[in-house]
Every structure is written in structure tokens, then in C-alpha cells.
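FAQ: What does a ligand-bound record look like?

Like this one, built around guanosine-5'-diphosphate:
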Amino acid sequence: MASAGRPPLKILLVGSAGVGKSSLMNRFVHNRFCSRYRATIGADFFTKVTELEGQRVTVQLWDTAGAERCQSLGMALYQGSHCCVLVFDVTVAASFQAVAARQAEPPNPKLFPFVLLGNKTDLPGRQVSAQEAEEWCAQTQAQYFETSAKDGTGVALAFQSALQAALRQQ
Ligand code: GDP
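The answer part, i.e. the structure of the complex:
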């Protein structure tokens, strides 16, 4: 394996409060789920060392809490990051509209990879279809994954895709 001397891959999680950003990070980093809701204040990050394409990489996952409330912080966080994971809750249409509206925010979306996650697929009462999300992704060159931080469905696959995109960007 290559040395761990390379700089960390920085991945941003963006999405409305409550969509499951902290839970997805917790699932990916610790393989755990906690049903207690704790609103993140400001920005927080988790670190995980993992192996990707035969290399040892350090990943920093940044939770950009309540991006609507922190526009300037959001912009600052994009600097130096390698991939953006946009998260919405498939049972809340407004959470999809919120991420879809953020498309033009980073300096150059064509050069900055996105991955879109429709989370909470374990819940009934779906408001956003996979087709709707995939159509948005086709326009923005993002990849779409359906996840449940609760039962773990799709989480490893989604983060693997984000890490690969980030690695290409680094
Ligand atoms: P954040 O504000 O985006 O970081 O959202 P959290 O990770 O704090 O999650 C908000 C609430 O949704 C918490 O009560 C979580 O337990 C719950 N939650 C998160 N992901 C899922 C999921 O995939 N399925 C279900 N059923 N609940 C989830």
C-alpha cells in the first residue's frame, strides 16, 4: 500500500437539517445508527482511514449543518474539498428541492464532482421518486444513490463512489 502521507480527501455533506447527514457519516465511519436527533452546530468533521484503489487514504467527511443558515460558511467549505455529497430525505420533497437548488453554488460544478443521496428509503410515505432524482443527476453529471442510514442500505456504495470521485479530483 502507498504511504499515508498524501493529504486527506475532503468530502462535504450538504443538505437540509434532519435529512440524515450525521447518521450517514456515523453509518459509514462507525457502522452505527443512533435514532436520537442532535442538530449539528456550524460544521463538524469525521475522519476515517480506508483503502481505496490499493491506496491507503485518509478521508475527512464534513457535515455542513443547515447550509441554508450558513451560506458564507458553505462557500468557505467548498474551498479545498474534493467531492460534495448532496443529501435529501426521500420522504420530504422540500429537502430535494433544497439540494437541487444548490447546483450552481460551487465555483465550477463541471469540475467539482457531486454525488446525490436519497436517504431514509426504509421509511414509508415517499415523496421523491428515484426517477426524479436520476433526471436531475443526468443534467448535473452527478451520480445518484438511494440509502438508509438506519439499515445501512446503499451507504457503503454511495461513499465508495464519492471517495473515487474525490480521489480523481485530488
Ligand atoms: P442531519 O441533521 O442531516 O445531520 O440529520 P441526522 O443524521 O441528525 O438525522 C435526523 C433524524 O433522522 C434522526 O432522528 C435520525 O435518527 C433520523 N434518520 C437519519 N437517517 C435515517 C434513515 O435512513 N432512516 C430513518 N428511518 N431515520 C433516519
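Follow-up question: can I read anything off the structure? Yes, for example: The chain has a mean pLDDT of 83.
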